[in-house]
Amino acid sequence: MSRAKLKSLGFDLPLLPTTSVGSLTKPDDLLAARARHARNEITQAELERLEEQATEFWIRQQEEIGLDVLVDGEMYRGDMVAYFAGLMGGFTLGGLVRSYGNRYYHKPIIGGEVKWPGPMTVGWWKKAQAMTRRPVKGMLTGPYTVMDWSFNDYYPDRRAAARALAREIRKEVEALVEAGCKIIQIDEPALSVRAEELQVAIEAMHVVTEGLPAYFLTHVCYGAFEFIYPAMLALPVDNWDLEMSNSGLDLVELFKAHPFTKDLSFGIVDVHTHVLEDIDVVKERVARALSVMPADQVWLDPDCGLKTRTVPETIDKLRLVVEAAQAARFALGAKT
Q1: For the chain, which terminal residue's Cβ has fewer other Cβ atoms within 10 angstroms, N or C?
Q2: In the predicted model, what is the mean pLDDT of residues 110-137?
Q3: For residue 295, is it left (φ>0), alpha (ψ between -120 and 50) or beta?
Q4: Distance between CA atoms of 113 and 116, rounded to whole angstroms?
């Protein structure tokens, strides 16, 4: 589908490109440092030095494993919404609410006009990209999810809040593109929460991506997609990243009834278990993906949530993705 677009942007990726969703495991010393920073026991500069070290560690690991498109691992942020709300104008951070399991975040409150403060992720993307010759994805949270995971005490309704956020998040995307980032992932995990608001999310994403020279991905996870598929394919992105393995590949049946028309980053490793799957199980998941989609539309990655695993578990699960991709390329007669 979008391989021609990728080539026009200067990327020559192999068939079945491999990547990771975004957040990777924070090393123990960094977790300890973040806790110390929260207690004002170390400076921001000391914390950032450790965040840079952890970023370089994961860039090197991804290179060694053989991933094609890398992520910075998000060593510099915690929650995917509170991080941006803590930087943007118009927000205050409220009390702790549960995200899932035993994970909590400070729920943002929109109390004024939301404002882009200047680059929020560009510096980190530049640092990560300078560490490797392989492409590194830009990583942002989308306007619909930021709106949905916040209290709105300022805008007249949810659509107005989402559109205001979209206008400001677009400025971050423009800054990434200007810096040289041409593969940008804009996460929208709240997309299926309210099926009746799908058009709100689509409108907001148009504001974010329209007319910009980049290959856009969106990651959504653990949702009731049967209620918004295939209408969700109208979201203006090139590639969807979907967790597939944790749910037993149940979405494959949807794709049989209504073909998936965008590129798809297909989660072939379940990361919400300590169990390391047998390689034959993972290869079978790739085969299932290719049974419903052309190979040139498929990317391969783990499900979302690698940050919940240990460092060795994360490395092992990423290795499985690359091994399965190489085997599938060989079977298809493509370069590995």
Answers
A1: C
A2: 97
A3: alpha
A4: 10
State the virtual CA torsion across 249, 7, 176, 191 in degrees, nearest 10: -20
DSSP state letter for 297: G
Task: Report the mean per-residue pLDDT for the chain.
Answer: 92
CA distance 207 to 211: 9
Does CATH number 3.40.630.10 belong to domain 3-77+121-142+181-332? Answer: no
Joined together, the tokens standing for residue 171 give: 């400025």
Give the least confident one: 69-73, 77-81, 103-107, 217-221.
103-107
Q: What is the helix (H) or strand (E) element at residue 208, kind and residue range?
A: helix 198-209
Beta-carbon contacts of residue 271 (< 8 Å; ≥ 6 apart)? 246, 302, 303, 304, 305, 306, 308, 309, 314, 317
Q: For the segment 83-119, what is each residue's pLDDT rounded down to a tens digit?
A: 999 999 999 987 777 766 666 677 899 999 999 999 9
Cβ–Cβ under 8 Å, residues 206 and 228: no
What residues does each domain of the chain span?
Answer: 3-77+121-142+181-332
Q: Which bin fits 163, alpha (ψ -120 to 50), beta or left (φ > 0)?
A: alpha
What are the pLDDT digits (tens) for 210-247? 999 999 999 997 677 888 989 999 999 999 998 878 77
Residue that has been written with the tokens 């493509």 in this structure: 334
Neighbours of 101 (CB within 10 A): 9
Residue with tokens 């107005």: 160
**Which of 44 and 1 is assigned the larger pLDDT?**
44
Neighbour-count burial of 71, counting CB atoms closer than 10 A to its CB (0-12 exposed, 13-18 middle, 19+ buried): buried
For residue 92, give the H/E element and its range.
Answer: strand 89-100
Query: Would you state the structure tokens that stand for residue 66, as one six-digit string?
Result: 């053989």
CA angle 268, 149, 218 (to 5 degrees): 35
